Amino acid sequence: MSNTTRRDFIKTSAGAVGAGLALPVLNRQAMGTTVVEMLRDELAADGRILVVIELAGGNDPLNTIVPLQQYDTYASFRSRIAIAKDQVLPLYGSTTMGLSPNLSAIKPIADAGKMAVIQMCHYPNPNLSHDGSRTIYRLADTSNSASLRSGWIGRHSALFGNRSNSLDTVGIGGVNSTLYAPGAKISGILSDAQGNASGYLFRTDDRYAGDRNNQLAAARVNDDAPSAKPYIDLSETTQMDALNSADLVANATAAYQSSVTYPTNNLAPGLKLIAKLATATNPTLGTRVFYISQGGYDTHADQINDQQTLHQTLAESLKAFYDDLVAHNLVDKTLIMIWTEFGRRVADNASIGTDHGEANNIYCLGGRVIGGVYGADPKLNDLQNGNLKRNYDFRDVYSTIIQNWFGNSASDAQQVLNGSFANLGFLM
Amino acid sequence: MAVSAYDRMAHLWRRAAFGARPDEINNYLKQGFEATVDQLVNYENVAESPNVPTQPTTRNGGFDIQILDVDNVTSWWLDRMIYTRRPLQERMTIFWHDHYATAISKVNVPNGIKYLYWQNQTFRQFATGDFRALSKAINRDPAMIWWLDNYLNVRGSPNENYARELMEIFMLGLEAFFTGGYTEPDVQQAARAFTGWSIRRGFDAPVNNNLNGPNTDPALSVEIPPNTPDGSRPATRHDYGDKTIFGVTQNFNGDDIVDLILNHEPQRTHAARMLGKKLFEHFAYEDPEESVVEHMTAVALRHNFNVKLILRDLFLNTKEFYSERAIHSLVKWPVHYVVSATRLLQATILTRGLNGGGRGQAQQTTLDAMGMALLNPPDVFGWPGREEWITTSQLLARDNWANALVTNRSTTPGNTGIPIDTAISTGGLNTNSTAEQAVDYFASLLIQRPLAANVRQALVDYMKKADNGAIGNFTLDAPTRDKKVRGLIHLLLSRPECQNF
């Protein structure tokens, strides 16, 4: 589908994407192209990729980036789960905070100045429910309004993504609310254990292979008129996208070559699939955003063991993925953003874990990241209800990425995020 | 334009059941709406099919609860849904499973699958029963106690997880939080009421690498504090002190919390609103008008949270249920999609290998690829549904399951796929039927809504096309049935229009 249809315009111009959000006039030639738009379009043509990794459940920041200068206070709050001081690794860009030994695999990336730790991000009036807080981060909206059903990446994709590319935004393992907005082109692709797309093709009767083209021809016929019923038009578009993108994906994964060995765990295959799709050159798939989730971070109990496994899995998988990007000359075109829906309480609990908390860190990695630690260290002596206070609004990170990574203007970012946020300057 | 009686009856069966064939719809029209709603809602009066398995089958060919696994339970539940003559009971079991979403991903502990099997039975028992009784049953449900960490909730060291979700999801709803239904302190105090409600540890240990212990009585798997302390373990772990919740001070225990919510205003009305609205959105249409929500709230209050009476009201007395806005406006959940296609086509399938992969490829994987692994919801909020069912990979999973269904030519009893000749004759078709008649009948069976002219023509052309694409004559003989009718069914089940119901 190469031309936006009148139907799309009607569907999306009625404020359906979000409160106060108006889509740009589609006839850009008539308006002329601004300098900012040129930059944005150049960066898009440059094949820049954002890889978003969601740590689902609420990753505990204090046992990820460990307070060294406040170690005694830290240990007194967490006698049951504190990481031993002599095991904490030096963290590039800080003398007061250290890196958990469980993340040793990504220490080389940090030491090369390619990892930014944006300390203590969150939002006003923290919501300690998984779904409540996760929804706020995914939708970039603190209003708790049930009517806004678009994710921040979805809105960005709908406004600035490639509307003719069904692989414009790809969710590995499925699509979630971060990615969804009317008009965004999103595909969910499941990965198998080898990092290949699983089940991503339209099968027909093997007994009558000669009839396949007839089936495909019929499957491609759709009702031209907008449907009077909800969801039908979306199903039509999505089904066509599925048929079109299935071939592209199969060719990309077959053509992939790499000398990097990925570890065996439940996150690496998904990252490997991202690498296969991102590194495809014949043709380039043009995916701008990849999304993947690692679950299990709700460490109410047995945090020492659980977080160790999670962090080792994360770090080892990330390192392999990063090395793969380097080997394919893509690391300068790739930005990895790692987020979680909330941090955890400073004090540990009787189940050798931690309960839901508030402020947490966001981690960014990539060739154009200005590595180091951003924001004041968490203040263990200045808590609210036993939880860490924030330095930044998490949307500052999003705004920085929208402007400095995708080359959007400040007003573009404002449009996507329904507000103005700070530029934190962690990208070259 | 008024909705015809036929379309209303077809809609009723799509929503309150898993769909009905045109010949069945015509029979139901003869008996009338009142008798049909009575048959659907008072299902205990309908003799159940002998094909409905009362228990799962474990790998030893019988039923050994100690080796029960998630595929056994999913397969059993799918078979129940496919063969039941009490479809509303299974529809509501799905509803409650989504509402009290509990997942094997975390309850993957010893006895975990057994607990989820018992939980499924509880949903079935209370499917259209008393919401108060169901809520109290969930208080003491071992899968739920594990899932929301209530076994960690003890006097002096409370764990709020269950109390929070009880208010936020199960009984009052998040909207209530923002409209004065409950507060954070209410949640924290309610947590104290549930202290000591726990799993009986060490009592039912599995042996010999079994998944489960030998206990077959759910009540014995949990320990519930008595109303007055008696020195028992649950009593010593329970906080018998006074709690102030919604402004009322009493030494509440867990069941008292359920009663408080359903008796005390404004919580009672909040609960009625939550339940009434959720049932309406599940069966009629999404995001209803405020007037409709108020109506459903009043219905829930009038019937004192009796789900059967609420649903009977909805199916018999609520014009919005039969409105144009309701008809074909919801996306089929993966389980609805699979079960309705199987029933409408009178198919016999191996539910433990839905995509034709036999024992090795469990239906968990296939339904998971559609976005709905039964017994494994993504989190306590259940499946978000709506447009989130509609992604490229999830639609391909539906399409490919449909392909597996139509290409199942096995002759093994219990797994013979679609009886094509039966499906054709049930539709009044025969060897002299035209391609148009075949397309029209199967569309009226599987989509139950007129096709756009160009779509219909494309399917008719497909029926007549040779492999080289040339359109020829059409005869509904055996070779055509095996090739083109199977292909047509695959195409219809893959249509965007077929994903709504």
SSE layout:
The complex is a heterodimer of chains A (428) and B (501).
Chain A (H helix, E strand, L loop, with lengths): L5 H8 L14 H4 L3 H11 L3 E8 L8 E3 L3 H7 L11 E2 L6 E3 L7 H5 L3 E8 L7 H10 L12 H9 L8 E4 L13 E4 L22 H8 L12 H24 L12 H11 L10 E7 L7 H25 L6 E7 L19 E7 L5 E3 L17 E2 H12 L4 H8 L11
Parallel strand pairs in A: 1-8, 1-9, 5-11, 5-12, 6-7, 6-8
Antiparallel strand pairs in A: 2-4, 3-4, 5-10, 9-10
Chain B lengths: L4 H12 L5 H10 L1 H9 L28 H14 L3 H13 L12 H14 L5 H9 L2 H6 L13 H11 L2 H5 L5 H10 L4 E2 L22 E2 L9 H4 L6 E3 L2 E3 L3 H10 L3 H17 L6 H13 L4 H11 L16 H11 L18 H8 L21 H15 L13 H7 L8 H12 L6 H12 L13 H17 L7
How would you characterize this protein structure?
The complex is a heterodimer of chains A (428) and B (501). Chain A has helices at residues 6-13, 28-31, 35-45, 71-77, 107-111, 130-139, 152-160, 212-219, 232-255, 268-278, 303-327, 394-405, 410-417; strands at residues 49-56, 65-67, 89-90, 97-99, 115-122, 169-172, 186-189, 289-295, 334-340, 360-366, 372-374, 392-393. Chain A is an alpha/beta fold and 428 residues long. Chain A has a single domain (29-417), classed as Alkaline Phosphatase, subunit A. In chain A, the strands form two sheets. In chain A, strands 1, 5, 6, 7, 8, 9, 10, 11 and 12 form a nine-stranded mixed beta sheet that branches. In chain A, a hairpin with a 6-residue loop joins strand 3 and strand 4. In chain A, helix 10 packs parallel to helix 11 and helix 12 crosses helix 13 (410-417). Helix content of chain B is 50%, strand content 2%. With 501 residues, chain B is an all-alpha fold. The two termini of chain B are 19 Å apart. Chain B has 23 helices and four strands. At the A-B interface, helix 6, strand 7, helix 8 and helix 9 of A face helix 9, helix 10, helix 19, helix 22 and helix 23 of B.
* Total domains of chain A: 1
| Average pLDDT rating of chain A | 88
| SSE succession of chain A | HHHEEHEEHEHHEEHHHEHEEEEHH
Instruction: Give unreliable regions of chain A as ranges.
Output: 1-32
**Biggest pleated sheet of chain A:** 9 strands, mixed
Shape of chain B from CA axes? globular
Query: Biggest β-sheet of chain B, characterized?
Result: 2 strands, antiparallel
Overall mean confidence score, pLDDT of chain B: 94
Total beta-strand segments of chain B: 4
The CATH topology of chain A is given as Alkaline Phosphatase, subunit A
Distance between the termini of chain B: 19 Å
Structure class of chain B: mainly alpha
Order of helices and strands of chain B: HHHHHHHHHHHEEHEEHHHHHHHHHHH
Rg of chain B (C-alpha, Å): 25 Å
